[in-house]
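worker-3 :: picked Reverse transcriptase domain-containing protein
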Amino acid sequence: MKWRSVTGVLCDKNIPERFKSKVYRTVVRAVALYGAECWAVTKEVEQRLSTMEMKMLRWMAGITRLDRICNQDI
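worker-3 :: tokens ->
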């Protein structure tokens, strides 16, 4: 999976957030949504994609649920 291969870049504190977000949008999101146009879009699929994206964004930012930061603030 592409996420595991780019975690070194995305989780590195020394790399600027702007670069990390660009890598995330161009590589990780593209791979995650590859073939999505032929999926049957249900509420469950939407929720799973949203959950996956939020987990990855939290991981990139070094924020856990224990930090009690709302998803909207990330």
